[in-house]
Design goal:
It holds the Pfam family ChaC. By secondary structure, the chain is an alpha+beta fold. The protein has one domain: Hypothetical upf0131 protein ytfp (Roll), CATH 3.10.490. The protein is 31% helix and 38% strand. A hairpin with a 4-residue loop joins β4 and β5.
């Protein structure tokens, strides 16, 4: 295992890590599912009209493909502080260390996973309901649909298939014209 600080990106961190990256590797987290299972009341929605953001939801038989980022040496403390400010804004995410598989071997990475007992957790919403929410929500970082489309596009560029995100992307485009 590697002793550098690695961070697992499965959503917006893939296309907007906002920290100095020394290396990127495609990685898989087994036992987790990427899902729009968190109501966003800050970044992609509001308290009055929550949006949806991706989270890792525990699913024993699933696996989530994403990107492991090795933080640039000497930037670990600043990166942790920035990630905590960004990801732990409402305490719906939990910080966990995950064992990841990569083409060059296993590594351990920090990841932000959903707290299934938090009030913002909404796992199991039908895809059509997710699409309706994402099509119309807007938060401090912009329209919810832009978050979906950027994530889906970057996953496709990396060769990572995610049928739910692909369906949602097409459905939201149809809903907004």
């Amino acid at each position: 295992m590697d002793d550098a600080l690695w961070v697992f990106g499965y959503g917006s961190l893939i296309w907007n890590p906002e920290f100095p990256v020394a290396e990127r590797r495609l990685a898989r987290a087994t036992g987790w599912h990427r899902s729009f299972c968190m109501r966003s009341i800050h970044h992609r929605g509001s308290e009055a009209a929550p949006g949806l953001v991706l989270a890792l939801d525990r699913a024993p038989e699933a696996a989530c493909d994403g990107v492991a980022f090795r933080v640039a040496p000497g930037e670990e403390a600043a990166t942790l502080a920035a990630l905590r400010e960004r990801e732990l804004i409402s305490s719906a995410y939990l910080e966990e260390w995950l064992d990841l598989d990569t083409a060059t071997g296993p590594l351990r990475a920090l990841a932000y996973v959903i707290d299934p007992v938090h009030v913002q957790y909404c796992g199991g919403l039908p895809l059509e309901e997710q699409a309706e929410i994402i099509a119309h929500a807007h938060g401090g970082r912009g329209p919810n649909r832009d978050y979906l489309w950027a994530t889906a596009a970057h996953l496709a560029e990396l060769g990572i298939a995610d049928p739910d995100l692909e369906w949602l992307s097409a459905r939201v485009r149809a809903l907004v014209g």
